[in-house]
Amino acid sequence: MTKYITALALLMTLSAAAESEDTNRPSPFYPVTTYSIVCYDSATGQFGAAVQSHWFKVADVIWAEPEVGVVATQSLADFSYGLLGLEMMEAGKTAQQALEGLKSSDPNSDVRQVAMIDNKGNIATHTGENCIAMAGHRVGPNYSVQANLMEKATVWDAMAQAFEKTEGELADRMMAALEAAQAEGGDIRGKQSAAMLVVTGEPTGMPWTDRIVDLRVDDSPEPLQELKRLISINRAYDYMNLGDEYFAKGEIEKAKEAYSKSAKLAPGNAEILFWQAATMVSAGEEDTAMTIFKKVFEMDENWRILVPRLVDSGLLPDDPELIERIVAQ
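-> C-alpha coordinates emitted (329 positions)
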Protein backbone atom coordinates (compact mmCIF):
# COMPACT_ATOMS: atom_id res chain seq x y z
CA MET A 1 0.00 0.00 0.00
CA THR A 2 2.85 2.38 0.87
CA LYS A 3 4.43 1.80 -2.55
CA TYR A 4 1.08 2.38 -4.23
CA ILE A 5 0.55 5.70 -2.41
CA THR A 6 4.11 6.76 -3.21
CA ALA A 7 3.61 5.99 -6.88
CA LEU A 8 0.29 7.86 -7.00
CA ALA A 9 1.91 10.88 -5.39
CA LEU A 10 4.69 10.68 -7.97
CA LEU A 11 2.19 10.53 -10.81
CA MET A 12 0.49 13.67 -9.52
CA THR A 13 3.86 15.40 -9.41
CA LEU A 14 4.70 14.29 -12.93
CA SER A 15 1.34 15.52 -14.25
CA ALA A 16 2.12 18.97 -12.94
CA ALA A 17 5.70 18.97 -14.20
CA ALA A 18 4.81 20.53 -17.52
CA GLU A 19 3.28 23.53 -15.73
CA SER A 20 6.12 24.35 -13.36
CA GLU A 21 9.84 23.71 -13.40
CA ASP A 22 9.76 23.76 -9.59
CA THR A 23 8.22 20.29 -9.60
CA ASN A 24 11.26 18.75 -11.30
CA ARG A 25 12.90 16.20 -9.02
CA PRO A 26 16.64 16.42 -8.28
CA SER A 27 18.62 15.62 -11.41
CA PRO A 28 21.97 13.99 -10.57
CA PHE A 29 24.74 13.00 -12.97
CA TYR A 30 26.55 9.72 -12.34
CA PRO A 31 28.76 8.85 -15.35
CA VAL A 32 27.79 5.17 -15.32
CA THR A 33 28.21 4.90 -19.06
CA THR A 34 27.86 1.26 -19.94
CA TYR A 35 26.11 -1.53 -21.83
CA SER A 36 23.22 -3.52 -20.41
CA ILE A 37 20.30 -5.81 -21.15
CA VAL A 38 16.82 -6.11 -19.64
CA CYS A 39 14.64 -9.09 -20.48
CA TYR A 40 11.48 -11.01 -19.68
CA ASP A 41 10.70 -14.72 -19.88
CA SER A 42 7.05 -14.98 -20.91
CA ALA A 43 6.96 -18.69 -20.00
CA THR A 44 8.11 -18.28 -16.38
CA GLY A 45 7.37 -14.61 -15.79
CA GLN A 46 10.97 -14.08 -14.70
CA PHE A 47 12.64 -10.69 -15.22
CA GLY A 48 16.37 -10.34 -15.81
CA ALA A 49 18.96 -7.61 -16.17
CA ALA A 50 22.72 -7.59 -16.64
CA VAL A 51 25.34 -4.88 -17.06
CA GLN A 52 29.09 -4.21 -17.48
CA SER A 53 30.93 -0.92 -17.24
CA HIS A 54 34.23 0.82 -16.60
CA TRP A 55 32.67 2.19 -13.41
CA PHE A 56 32.86 1.00 -9.80
CA LYS A 57 29.87 -1.01 -8.47
CA VAL A 58 27.74 -0.86 -11.61
CA ALA A 59 24.99 -2.98 -9.99
CA ASP A 60 23.17 0.26 -9.10
CA VAL A 61 22.11 0.41 -12.76
CA ILE A 62 19.73 -2.59 -12.68
CA TRP A 63 16.44 -2.95 -10.79
CA ALA A 64 13.79 -5.69 -10.82
CA GLU A 65 10.81 -6.84 -8.77
CA PRO A 66 8.74 -10.03 -9.18
CA GLU A 67 5.40 -9.53 -10.94
CA VAL A 68 6.27 -5.84 -11.50
CA GLY A 69 9.05 -5.31 -14.00
CA VAL A 70 12.68 -4.52 -14.65
CA VAL A 71 14.64 -1.30 -15.24
CA ALA A 72 18.15 -0.34 -16.37
CA THR A 73 19.18 3.30 -15.89
CA GLN A 74 22.58 4.39 -17.21
CA SER A 75 24.65 6.89 -19.25
CA LEU A 76 24.85 10.06 -17.11
CA ALA A 77 22.56 8.14 -14.82
CA ASP A 78 19.78 9.08 -12.46
CA PHE A 79 19.27 5.95 -10.34
CA SER A 80 15.83 7.11 -9.19
CA TYR A 81 14.50 5.92 -12.57
CA GLY A 82 14.97 2.41 -11.17
CA LEU A 83 13.03 2.77 -7.93
CA LEU A 84 10.38 5.14 -9.26
CA GLY A 85 9.95 3.21 -12.49
CA LEU A 86 9.17 0.02 -10.57
CA GLU A 87 6.78 1.85 -8.25
CA MET A 88 4.91 3.37 -11.18
CA MET A 89 4.62 0.02 -12.96
CA GLU A 90 3.43 -1.58 -9.72
CA ALA A 91 0.76 1.14 -9.56
CA GLY A 92 -0.51 0.05 -12.98
CA LYS A 93 1.40 2.19 -15.45
CA THR A 94 2.86 0.54 -18.54
CA ALA A 95 6.60 0.65 -19.11
CA GLN A 96 6.13 3.42 -21.68
CA GLN A 97 3.90 5.49 -19.40
CA ALA A 98 6.37 5.14 -16.52
CA LEU A 99 9.34 6.10 -18.68
CA GLU A 100 7.59 9.08 -20.29
CA GLY A 101 6.41 10.29 -16.89
CA LEU A 102 9.89 10.19 -15.42
CA LYS A 103 11.44 11.85 -18.46
CA SER A 104 8.90 14.68 -18.28
CA SER A 105 10.11 15.64 -14.79
CA ASP A 106 13.81 15.28 -15.65
CA PRO A 107 15.43 18.38 -17.19
CA ASN A 108 18.41 16.24 -18.18
CA SER A 109 16.61 13.39 -19.91
CA ASP A 110 18.73 14.09 -22.99
CA VAL A 111 21.74 12.43 -21.30
CA ARG A 112 19.86 9.48 -19.83
CA GLN A 113 19.63 5.98 -21.24
CA VAL A 114 16.84 3.91 -19.71
CA ALA A 115 15.06 0.66 -20.53
CA MET A 116 11.98 -0.78 -18.82
CA ILE A 117 9.80 -3.88 -19.18
CA ASP A 118 6.49 -4.23 -17.33
CA ASN A 119 4.66 -7.38 -16.23
CA LYS A 120 2.76 -7.56 -19.50
CA GLY A 121 6.00 -7.69 -21.46
CA ASN A 122 5.67 -4.11 -22.76
CA ILE A 123 9.08 -2.56 -23.45
CA ALA A 124 10.12 1.09 -23.36
CA THR A 125 13.64 2.31 -24.12
CA HIS A 126 15.12 5.79 -24.30
CA THR A 127 18.54 6.87 -25.52
CA GLY A 128 18.92 10.61 -24.99
CA GLU A 129 20.22 12.59 -27.94
CA ASN A 130 23.17 13.82 -25.88
CA CYS A 131 24.35 10.46 -24.56
CA ILE A 132 28.06 10.06 -25.25
CA ALA A 133 28.76 8.30 -28.55
CA MET A 134 28.74 5.61 -29.56
CA ALA A 135 25.26 5.20 -28.13
CA GLY A 136 22.13 3.35 -29.15
CA HIS A 137 19.70 0.58 -28.35
CA ARG A 138 17.78 -2.26 -29.93
CA VAL A 139 14.48 -3.75 -28.82
CA GLY A 140 13.56 -7.34 -29.64
CA PRO A 141 11.06 -9.95 -28.46
CA ASN A 142 10.96 -9.66 -24.65
CA TYR A 143 14.26 -7.79 -24.37
CA SER A 144 16.05 -4.50 -24.85
CA VAL A 145 19.80 -3.94 -25.15
CA GLN A 146 21.32 -0.49 -24.75
CA ALA A 147 24.82 0.97 -24.71
CA ASN A 148 26.66 4.27 -24.61
CA LEU A 149 30.29 5.44 -24.69
CA MET A 150 31.07 2.35 -26.74
CA GLU A 151 34.12 1.85 -28.91
CA LYS A 152 31.90 0.82 -31.83
CA ALA A 153 28.30 1.34 -32.91
CA THR A 154 27.99 -2.41 -33.50
CA VAL A 155 27.75 -3.29 -29.79
CA TRP A 156 23.98 -3.29 -29.25
CA ASP A 157 23.23 -5.26 -32.41
CA ALA A 158 25.82 -7.86 -31.41
CA MET A 159 24.19 -8.12 -27.98
CA ALA A 160 20.76 -8.62 -29.51
CA GLN A 161 21.95 -11.33 -31.87
CA ALA A 162 23.76 -13.20 -29.09
CA PHE A 163 20.73 -13.08 -26.79
CA GLU A 164 18.37 -14.33 -29.48
CA LYS A 165 20.67 -17.16 -30.59
CA THR A 166 21.55 -18.45 -27.13
CA GLU A 167 19.32 -21.08 -25.53
CA GLY A 168 18.87 -21.86 -21.86
CA GLU A 169 18.14 -19.85 -18.75
CA LEU A 170 17.99 -16.06 -18.71
CA ALA A 171 21.36 -15.91 -16.93
CA ASP A 172 23.09 -17.80 -19.74
CA ARG A 173 21.45 -15.75 -22.46
CA MET A 174 22.28 -12.44 -20.78
CA MET A 175 25.86 -13.57 -20.22
CA ALA A 176 26.15 -14.29 -23.94
CA ALA A 177 24.89 -10.78 -24.69
CA LEU A 178 27.47 -9.18 -22.39
CA GLU A 179 30.29 -11.23 -23.88
CA ALA A 180 29.18 -10.27 -27.40
CA ALA A 181 29.29 -6.60 -26.43
CA GLN A 182 32.82 -6.94 -25.12
CA ALA A 183 33.89 -8.81 -28.24
CA GLU A 184 32.86 -5.72 -30.22
CA GLY A 185 35.10 -3.51 -28.08
CA GLY A 186 32.65 -2.71 -25.30
CA ASP A 187 33.10 0.40 -23.19
CA ILE A 188 35.78 2.55 -24.83
CA ARG A 189 37.32 3.19 -21.37
CA GLY A 190 37.78 -0.50 -20.61
CA LYS A 191 36.33 -2.88 -17.98
CA GLN A 192 35.79 -2.62 -14.24
CA SER A 193 32.53 -4.04 -12.87
CA ALA A 194 29.54 -6.17 -13.81
CA ALA A 195 26.28 -7.37 -12.31
CA MET A 196 23.33 -9.64 -13.02
CA LEU A 197 19.85 -9.90 -11.52
CA VAL A 198 17.06 -12.43 -12.17
CA VAL A 199 13.83 -12.42 -10.14
CA THR A 200 10.93 -14.87 -9.97
CA GLY A 201 7.76 -14.32 -11.95
CA GLU A 202 5.62 -14.11 -8.82
CA PRO A 203 6.60 -13.02 -5.30
CA THR A 204 6.86 -15.95 -2.91
CA GLY A 205 6.40 -13.93 0.26
CA MET A 206 10.06 -14.68 1.01
CA PRO A 207 12.09 -11.90 -0.67
CA TRP A 208 15.35 -13.76 -0.16
CA THR A 209 14.10 -16.52 -2.49
CA ASP A 210 12.62 -14.18 -5.09
CA ARG A 211 16.09 -13.27 -6.38
CA ILE A 212 17.16 -16.31 -8.36
CA VAL A 213 20.39 -14.62 -9.43
CA ASP A 214 21.79 -11.60 -7.61
CA LEU A 215 25.48 -11.27 -8.42
CA ARG A 216 27.95 -8.40 -8.42
CA VAL A 217 31.55 -7.92 -9.44
CA ASP A 218 32.26 -4.46 -8.04
CA ASP A 219 35.88 -4.08 -9.13
CA SER A 220 37.91 -6.44 -11.31
CA PRO A 221 40.26 -6.31 -14.30
CA GLU A 222 38.09 -9.03 -15.89
CA PRO A 223 34.55 -8.49 -14.58
CA LEU A 224 32.80 -10.64 -17.17
CA GLN A 225 35.02 -13.63 -16.52
CA GLU A 226 34.39 -13.27 -12.80
CA LEU A 227 30.63 -12.84 -13.32
CA LYS A 228 30.52 -16.00 -15.41
CA ARG A 229 32.37 -17.89 -12.68
CA LEU A 230 29.94 -16.63 -10.06
CA ILE A 231 26.96 -17.71 -12.17
CA SER A 232 28.34 -21.26 -12.17
CA ILE A 233 28.93 -21.21 -8.40
CA ASN A 234 25.48 -19.73 -7.80
CA ARG A 235 23.97 -22.59 -9.79
CA ALA A 236 26.06 -25.11 -7.84
CA TYR A 237 24.69 -23.85 -4.54
CA ASP A 238 21.17 -23.87 -5.98
CA TYR A 239 21.59 -27.58 -6.72
CA MET A 240 23.02 -28.16 -3.26
CA ASN A 241 19.98 -26.48 -1.69
CA LEU A 242 17.73 -28.52 -3.95
CA GLY A 243 19.48 -31.67 -2.74
CA ASP A 244 18.79 -30.64 0.86
CA GLU A 245 15.10 -30.16 0.01
CA TYR A 246 14.90 -33.61 -1.57
CA PHE A 247 16.68 -35.09 1.44
CA ALA A 248 14.19 -33.48 3.81
CA LYS A 249 11.38 -35.13 1.83
CA GLY A 250 13.09 -38.51 1.96
CA GLU A 251 13.77 -38.52 -1.79
CA ILE A 252 17.35 -39.73 -1.40
CA GLU A 253 18.10 -40.64 -5.04
CA LYS A 254 16.95 -37.22 -6.23
CA ALA A 255 19.03 -35.64 -3.48
CA LYS A 256 22.13 -37.54 -4.60
CA GLU A 257 21.56 -36.48 -8.21
CA ALA A 258 21.24 -32.82 -7.21
CA TYR A 259 24.38 -33.01 -5.05
CA SER A 260 26.27 -34.59 -7.95
CA LYS A 261 25.28 -31.74 -10.28
CA SER A 262 26.36 -29.26 -7.63
CA ALA A 263 29.80 -30.83 -7.30
CA LYS A 264 30.32 -30.89 -11.09
CA LEU A 265 29.53 -27.18 -11.37
CA ALA A 266 31.99 -26.24 -8.64
CA PRO A 267 34.84 -28.76 -8.80
CA GLY A 268 37.27 -28.39 -5.95
CA ASN A 269 34.74 -26.64 -3.71
CA ALA A 270 35.31 -28.37 -0.36
CA GLU A 271 32.33 -26.65 1.26
CA ILE A 272 29.82 -28.22 -1.10
CA LEU A 273 31.40 -31.66 -0.82
CA PHE A 274 31.62 -31.54 2.98
CA TRP A 275 27.93 -30.79 3.55
CA GLN A 276 26.97 -33.31 0.89
CA ALA A 277 28.91 -35.95 2.82
CA ALA A 278 27.36 -34.91 6.14
CA THR A 279 23.88 -35.23 4.64
CA MET A 280 24.70 -38.64 3.19
CA VAL A 281 25.67 -39.85 6.69
CA SER A 282 22.26 -38.79 7.99
CA ALA A 283 20.65 -40.65 5.09
CA GLY A 284 22.46 -43.87 6.00
CA GLU A 285 24.69 -43.61 2.92
CA GLU A 286 27.85 -43.98 5.02
CA ASP A 287 30.10 -45.60 2.41
CA THR A 288 29.31 -42.86 -0.10
CA ALA A 289 29.89 -40.24 2.59
CA MET A 290 33.30 -41.66 3.57
CA THR A 291 34.59 -41.39 0.00
CA ILE A 292 33.52 -37.75 -0.14
CA PHE A 293 34.94 -36.93 3.30
CA LYS A 294 38.30 -38.33 2.19
CA LYS A 295 38.36 -35.94 -0.79
CA VAL A 296 37.48 -33.01 1.43
CA PHE A 297 40.16 -33.76 4.04
CA GLU A 298 42.76 -33.99 1.26
CA MET A 299 41.83 -30.44 0.27
CA ASP A 300 42.03 -28.97 3.77
CA GLU A 301 42.67 -30.60 7.16
CA ASN A 302 40.48 -28.05 8.95
CA TRP A 303 37.37 -29.87 7.71
CA ARG A 304 38.52 -32.96 9.63
CA ILE A 305 38.74 -30.87 12.83
CA LEU A 306 35.21 -29.59 12.25
CA VAL A 307 33.57 -33.04 12.17
CA PRO A 308 33.19 -33.74 15.92
CA ARG A 309 31.93 -30.21 16.51
CA LEU A 310 28.82 -30.96 14.43
CA VAL A 311 27.51 -33.55 16.87
CA ASP A 312 26.27 -31.08 19.51
CA SER A 313 24.46 -29.11 16.79
CA GLY A 314 22.69 -32.25 15.59
CA LEU A 315 24.29 -32.10 12.17
CA LEU A 316 26.00 -35.47 12.66
CA PRO A 317 24.82 -38.42 14.80
CA ASP A 318 26.05 -38.72 18.40
CA ASP A 319 27.89 -41.91 17.54
CA PRO A 320 31.56 -41.84 18.67
CA GLU A 321 32.43 -44.86 16.55
CA LEU A 322 31.00 -43.26 13.43
CA ILE A 323 32.69 -39.91 14.12
CA GLU A 324 36.01 -41.69 14.62
CA ARG A 325 35.54 -43.47 11.30
CA ILE A 326 34.87 -40.20 9.50
CA VAL A 327 37.87 -38.44 11.04
CA ALA A 328 40.10 -41.37 10.10
CA GLN A 329 39.46 -40.94 6.38
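The first helix runs from residue 2 to 17.
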